[in-house]
Amino acid sequence: MQAHESSGLSFSGVWTSFRIGLLQKDIASLYEGRLAYQKALLSASGRLLPNRKRARSNPRVSHTRSQKSTKFPKEQRKAKAKQANADAEKDKPIPPRLTTK
Questions:
Q1: In 3D, which of 47, 62, 38 has the Cα closest to residue 13?
Q2: pLDDT (tens digit per residue) in 77-92
């Protein structure tokens, strides 16, 4: 796998520039929109990452995925309750049949 060459722009910096420059403004006309876009683009182009002389000392690691058994505790409780009710029904004595004459 080849390393991806970065453009040198900070993602969070670019997102902040566009969020503040475009999303938080009331733009009424196409001209105002284009002007706001140009200003946000100019601001974002200056948000560069610092040049690191050496590689990261803390390599990026993905978090381990938790087991599925911990994701749905409510459904598991319902299933256990349903099973307990079914077991309780099995243990009940069968009532005598009523006969009519």
A1: 47
A2: 888 888 888 877 777 7
